[in-house]
Every structure is written in structure tokens, then in C-alpha cells.
């Protein structure tokens, strides 16, 4: 299964980042919630992005942080060395995609929830 960092994680069950954490967990993927919100999501503590926590073995980053809030975290996001970054609807960012491609990181503009449900995650 794919160890997935959720950038923009939240404890709010009405948010898509929370729904992604739930579905990823249900499908057996290890989640690493990262954001500015404090709390726990499916028995995982949300890591504070401002502390730039180093996490090893990330396969996928799924973005739930709007493009206007991403630039300050470019270096951190890329330092996690994921194999791919999924830009969920509303998080698309061509500049970060270009930087990721330069480092050999695959990017997708897609919905994590749909990808999981249709079996192409």
C-alpha cells in the first residue's frame, strides 16, 4: 500500500482532506496528515507543517492546500521526495508541477477520493 502524506489535513469531517484520510485508511494506505490544524485523524497526529517534519518513505502526496498557500511550502513538499503529487480539484498549481517534474516526481490533477473508488490510486 502507498504511504500518503495529506497536505492540508484537518479534523473537520466536512472537509475533503478529512474524507481522503478516512478513505485512504479504509483502503489500507498508511496516512501522514500534515497541516496547520492541531488534532488527530484516524489515530494519526496531524504534523505541524510549520515545523517541516521530515517523514521517510512517502509514496504519494495528496494536496488539499490551495495554490495561493503553496509557494511557502514548495521546498518542504519536494524535500519529502514523493513518487507523485496528486493535485485535488482547487489545488492545481503549474509552477509546483514544473518543479516536481524537474525532480522526477510524477504529478496528477485528479481527485484522490475518485481514484480510490475506481481502483486507480
TrEMBL record:
Species assigned in the record: Fulvivirga marina
InterPro entries linked to this entry: CoA-bd, NAD(P)-bd_dom_sf
Superkingdom field: Bacteria
UniProt cross-references to Pfam families, sorted A to Z: CoA_binding_2
Domain CoA-binding positions: 2-116
Protein name (record): CoA-binding protein
Amino acid at each position: 500500500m502507498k504511504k500518503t502524506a495529506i497536505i492540508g489535513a484537518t479534523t473537520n469531517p466536512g472537509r475533503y482532506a478529512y474524507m481522503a484520510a478516512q478513505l485512504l485508511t479504509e483502503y489500507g494506505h498508511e496516512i501522514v496528515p500534515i497541516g496547520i490544524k492541531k488534532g488527530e485523524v484516524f489515530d494519526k497526529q496531524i504534523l505541524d507543517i510549520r515545523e517541516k517534519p521530515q517523514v521517510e518513505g512517502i509514496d504519494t502526496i495528496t494536496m488539499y492546500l490551495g495554490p495561493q498557500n503553496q509557494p511557502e511550502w514548495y521546498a518542504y513538499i519536494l524535500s519529502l521526495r514523493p513518487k507523485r503529487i496528486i493535485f485535488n480539484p482547487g489545488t492545481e498549481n503549474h509552477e509546483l508541477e514544473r518543479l516536481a517534474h524537474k525532480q522526477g516526481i510524477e504529478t496528477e490533477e485528479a481527485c484522490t477520493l475518485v481514484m480510490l473508488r475506481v481502483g486507480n490510486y
